[in-house]
Amino acid sequence: MPAIRxxxxxxxxxxxxxxxxxxTFTDSSAQASRTPETPADRPARSEIPAAVDPAADLGRHTPxxxxxxxxxxxxxxxVKANGQDFGLQxxxxxxxxxxxxxxxxxxxxxxKTTGWYKDYAAxxxxxxxxxxxxKLDIKAPGLSWTGDSVRQSVRVxxxxxxxxxxxxxxxxxxxxxxxxxxxxxxxxxxxEFALPEMRTSGTLSIQGREHKVRGTSWLDRQxxxxxxxxxxxxxxxxxxxxxxxxxxxxxxxxxxxNSWATVLRPDGSYEVVAVEPLAKGASRQWTSPATGQSYPTxxxxxxxxxxxxxxxxxxxxPDQEIxxxxxxxxxxxxxxxxxxxxxxxxxxxxxxxxTGEWKS
Length: 360
Known about the structure:
GO molecular function, one term: hydrolase activity
Radius of gyration: 19 Å
Order of helices and strands: EEEEEEEEEEEEEEEEEEEEEEEEE
Keywords: Hydrolase, Signal
Number of strands: 25
Pfam families: CrtC, Lipocalin_9
Protein name: Hydrolase
Largest sheet: 13 strands, antiparallel
CATH topology: AttH-like fold
Helix content: under 10%
InterPro entries: AttH-like_dom_sf, AttH_dom
Distance between the termini: 23 Å
Number of domains: 1
Oligomer: single chain
């Protein structure tokens, strides 16, 4: 998820990544004949047909007319090699209706054991970028991403290193808000799904040294219009010991403040639940020396409907910010969590994405 910044009269800088929205939660069931205004309208166990297809929708989509319309795909990984723990993030997005910064890909690597971090962002000319419709076939200078919903191959090359990995899903796809369609912020709809558990293996090369890595990845696929009124967002992903996958979103728009999560059970069923706004439990601000933006590095995450309280903290080092062409940035950071999930003790590792202004 990943980054696109839009400036307007009604909004501060915003990123593109994964999506969200939700105002109030009710116990009423959604009707299959309508698109709910927020994920809150979804039933706890959705039998509404999905509006996204994890096989066909890995391909490029026909763009809408909006200037801020985007196509995005990315994955985050937790892998091990040579007795060390690494976090990986690869993302590519396009905004075909823009004249500048329209085609982009990024790689970031954090050695959680030593704290070493490096990222790379490439701007690509439209003529040099290919993303096929109907299938996952992306080619650009320094980037190759091919495959399908069963197996994928990703190759990335930068001046300081490279990544060559294979990804294979080991569980069901997650449709955000249970159908894959919801309001991103302030009434703007988006589409998104995830492949939340992908067996990952391959080679990570850093400054001439090769690491044979193994671990797991979480892939997100998103497209739609980016609201210009979006002030900030936070996204977190959790893989629970019982097999549940939890995707949490916390957004602040010009007209809305929304905090919610999609829960995917191992049997493919869903729950969509309210989350206490993250600002209430955010602490230990870190200010980027490169962009001047501030981000929390600790959170107390509360999900009352799931009897869940989690302490989440950035790992490695806090400076995992990816800068953008307009001089701002967004955080793609590894985090660790521990606490109670559905009344049972849990711990694990995941990622957090933050964008926008956190001083207020």
